[in-house]
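The following block was generated as part of the benchmark described in Methods. Ligand: adenosine-5'-triphosphate.
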Amino acid sequence: MIEFDQVHKAYEVEGRAIPALQPTSLAIENGEVFGIVGHSGAGKSTLVRLINLLERPSGGRIVIDGEDVTGYDSKDLRDFRRKVGMIFQHFNLLSSKTVEDNIAFPMKLAGIYSRDEIRTRVAELLERVGLTHHARKFPSQLSGGQKQRVGIARALACRPTILLCDEATSALDPQTTQSVLRLLGDLNRELKLTIVLITHEMDVVRRVCDRVAVMDAGDVVEMGPVTDVFLHPKHATTRDFVFESEHVDEQEMEANFEKAEGRILRLTFRGESTYKPLLGSVARQTGVDFSILSGRIDRIKDTPYGQLTLSLVGGDLPAAQAALEAADVHVEVVR
Ligand SMILES: Nc1ncnc2c1ncn2[C@@H]1O[C@H](COP(=O)(O)OP(=O)(O)OP(=O)(O)O)[C@@H](O)[C@H]1O
């Protein structure tokens, strides 16, 4: 488990302290995929670089698997860093080394592995990330997605238990992003790897993360299971991210609401209730007429969900609302 206890960070610039992370407490469970979302400058990289102590905290305690790592000396730090792999937006591969030498590099640097161990591990990782036939190529001969796969293999070389991903898919096209996210999801399941993933796209969070922290100006402003944060965002920053990822224009939506008659409800279906033919039967039972103002069906990781905004007129409105709630639908009265 990764625990932050009132951890804060300010950078010293020309004798002045520039705050980057306000006192933050959080706990990331072993084996979970934890997303950190926020605009540029929100403090995401700072938070993640504190986990592997690439940045030292200005105060507070960082505890990894029960051990306070904040006071580690350089020997402890070297051993500890093998437990934490990291991948980057621009891959950070060594351009003069081949794919296999890039992957072997952290193992050689550690100085504790035999040649045979390194050779076996590199072959295993090349196969795992689907690059066996590219072992002798140089990074410049690879696509972006392939480079990130090399980055992932290299990060896993010393068998870390934690993988930090700093905007790992931001430089990739949508299709490649999807395949890299799928690989990260598979590795999380197969290796019980804890993944902490920074992104500025809520869509990335929706596809792979179990929980998410939303950051704004150095503060964690909202944190929780992705299903809760995504479907019922509370903070304005979170709402912006969710609307952006769903391509919702808030002004346009409100203009539509003005044109609509009657009561406006936003319904959220989760899991199996997403597919039930509920609306027709509620309309028949209660005599309510409805029209659909907006809607989508999608998935959050493995959970299907649907969101519908309806305008309802006539009939027994309270009974309709009660029937929907009784069927496990979350009902929010918009107007
Ligand atoms: N080494 C540094 N020295 C001084 N200030 C820094 C340093 N690194 C980050 N900052 C400042 O700290 C704040 C948080 O930066 P950080 O890189 O953590 O944000 P971020 O959310 O990761 O942004 P981005 O998405 O643009 O990478 C910013 O105001 C940034 O300018």
